[in-house]
Amino acid sequence: MKVLAHISDLHFGAESPDVVEGLVADMASLAPWLVAVSGDLTQRARPREFAAARKFLDRIPGLKLAVPGNHDIPLFDLVSRFTRPLARFRRHIDDDVEPFLSEDDVAVIGVNTARSNTWKEGRVSKAQIERLRRRLESLPAHVVKVLVAHHPFAAAPGAPESSLVGRSSEALEVAASGRLDMVLTGHLHHGVTHQHDHLQRSMLVVQAGTATSHRIRGEPNSYNVIQISRERLRFSVRIWDGNAFREDRVAEYDRRAPDWRPIGPVLAKH
């Protein structure tokens, strides 16, 4: 099984150094195949913050796939915000803000939802939705298809609908018709995995907490580990307990045509 680590909302510039070191150590022990970063690598999109985020990414094992978040667009530098909003992300993290990776039975599609003309909200354009459609249609049916973005496309239980990315319904229609398996997002600083049904298609929605920031919202720093095979998925949330990251909640799914279905209840370890 491939191991995918899903981290989000690093917020370098507002990070907790001990948590950063703990995450580096935890990743070294897990040795993931891929680290998917669903945005907000920085707090204010300053060059030194991006440099710190790049240094962190270089310290952890595995391939990297990262998309921007709203905090990765300059807030106070209005010239940069509206003329070259992602120039620093491109310079330090990845020139491609919508990366794509396909290997064996897994394909991961990055979508940029960050926009200059909003502070918190995200959006996808019709052109992006069309690119997503074409990308999904090009992939074989057996491939596990994963979308990575910063802003949520579907509301988690108890989460506000107002946090959803603009044109989320149109994007989910394309995702459902293209047999997308899961969506990995961040933004809310809460970790949860749930099933979302859309157009008679069920996909898994995976929300990540903040991995390294001290800007926590009612739950500790955390990240997700997803073990993937063609017929089986295992999700675990790893939380910071003050000294190290440890496994806290586990959910397993298998593929029962045409969708993924849970195997037993979510296991909470605490």
Number of strands: 14
Shape assignment: globular
- The helix/strand class is alpha/beta
Oligomer: single chain
Biggest sheet features: 8 strands, mixed
| Strand coverage percent | 25-35%
Helical fraction: 10-25%
Query: Can you say what the CATH homologous superfamily is?
Result: Metallo-dependent phosphatases
CATH fold assignment? Purple Acid Phosphatase, chain A, domain 2
Task: Determine the N-to-C terminus distance.
Answer: 25 Å
Characterise the protein shown here:
The chain has 270 residues and is α/β, with parallel strands linked by helices. It has one domain (2-268): Metallo-dependent phosphatases (Purple Acid Phosphatase, chain A, domain 2, 4-Layer Sandwich), CATH 3.60.21. It contains six helices and 14 strands. The protein has helices at residues 17-30, 47-59, 78-83, 87-92, 126-137, 168-177; strands at 2-7, 34-38, 63-67, 100-103, 106-110, 144-148, 182-185, 192-198, 201-207, 222-228, 232-240, 245-256, 259-262, 267-268. Strands 1, 2, 3, 10, 11, 12, 13 and 14 form an eight-stranded mixed sheet that branches. Helix 5 (126-137) runs parallel beside helix 6. The mean pLDDT is 90.
Compact overview of the structure:
The protein is an alpha/beta fold and 270 residues long.
Secondary structure topology:
Blueprint: E1 2-7, H1 17-30, E2 34-38, H2 47-59, E3 63-67, H3 78-83, H4 87-92, E4 100-103, E5 106-110, H5 126-137, E6 144-148, H6 168-177, E7 182-185, E8 192-198, E9 201-207, E10 222-228, E11 232-240, E12 245-256, E13 259-262, E14 267-268
Parallel strand pairs: 1-2, 2-3, 5-6, 6-7, 7-9
Antiparallel strand pairs: 1-10, 4-5, 8-9, 10-11, 11-12, 12-13, 12-14
Helix pairs in contact: 5-6
